[in-house]
Amino acid sequence: QHATTNSTTLVSCTANTMKTAVLATLFATAAAFAPVAKQATTSSSSLKAFENELGAQPPLGFFDPLGLVADGDQAKFDRLRLVEIKHGRIAMLGVVGYLVTYAGIRFPGAEDIPAGFAALDKVPVPVWSQIFFTVLLMEGVNRDDTGLGEFVGDFRNGALDFGWDTFDEKTKLQKRAIELNQGRAAMMGLLGLMVHEKLGNVDILLPPGGN
Description:
The protein has four helices and no strands. By secondary structure, it is mainly α. The longest helix is centred in the first third of the chain and has 49 residues, at 2-50.
């Protein structure tokens, strides 16, 4: 009888333990899936918020793999768009500069400066100073100081129109899309040139020049 009682007690304890384990598993499962559901809802809201923005186009559409604007914050999106446009413009100038110097074209007095990374060790200190102050000047000038910008990245400040105001809205949107896409391509292109130069085979991308 004593053995039977112990056996019954053991079975009862085991059953209670199993129930506790099952309940703990259910709670843990619920806790684990709750944030995922919330994140999925947030990401869906973000997609709806920005899926019609300029640059969200086939084949990727609105592409935010890191979830940088997963919260749907318009101000954050505008700041990141400004950074994208600025980097794209710099990259476009960088690609042109790389191609020009690779072709052997130089300013007077800089004929001995090589192209690519090799120029870093050859550029005189006064030239580095000029580059530094030019960058500071461009950072100070290239901003919307008047608040008249039509869109993020519009730094005209009431000047240097070049006929922009003569375009209709469809043409303006098309030209902005062209700039954005060319900036994206330039960022990838400049990165590719830098990587291939370091690999020592940039000549497979570019024709022989006078660099």
